[in-house]
Amino acid sequence: MNRHGRIACGMVLLLAAPCAARALEITPGYAEVQQAFLREDFLASAQLARRFLAEHPEAEEFSRVSIWLAVSLDRLQRAPEALSVLDRLKQQLPAKDPRWLEVLFWDGDISRRAVQLVRARQAFQRLLLRDANSPWAP
User: What DSSP character marks residue 25?
Assistant: First the structure.
């Protein structure tokens, strides 16, 4: 590599370093929500998730915590609240966000168990339309 190539590579690394460091930072409170969810302490998870979402509406982890909140509420037998959380998330999620598949899966699964079969079917159909290679595809 010539001198100019080494300089260009060095510049790229210098510019990328702050971005990589920011990507490794987690928003305060995220780890606590994650730990409660992984312990399957769904009451604590729901409480911590609500606080996190209220305090950090612009956080990168917002969609992940919203999904955990919905699943936690469902496990607490509060399916209508869980579906409301997913509805709000679907309104905010960018069209190309990779979390759409997970959101649609949980929407369908929670709706099915809440005996909202039309909603469940629509969610699963949207899931299959978004990902033809889905393991759920026929």
Answer: -
104-124 pLDDT per residue, tens: 888 888 988 888 788 888 888
DSSP code string of 37-100? HHTT-HHHHHHHHHHHHHH-TT-TTHHHHHHHHHHHHHHTT-HHHHHHHHHHHHHHS-TT-TTH
Cα separations in angstroms, 102 against 58, 61, 90, 131, 135: 20, 14, 11, 11, 13
Contact 104, 126 (CB under 8 A): yes
pTM (predicted TM-score): 0.76
For residue 117 the two structure tokens come to 């079969």
| Residue that is written with structure tokens 């290679």 in the block | 133
Where do we find the tokens 């606590």? 32
Which residues does 63 contact at the CB level (< 8 Å), separation at least 6?
A: 89, 92, 93, 97, 99, 103
pLDDT tens digits, one per residue of 12-44: 444 444 444 445 688 889 999 999 999 999 999
Contacts of 84 (CB under 8 A, 6+ apart): none
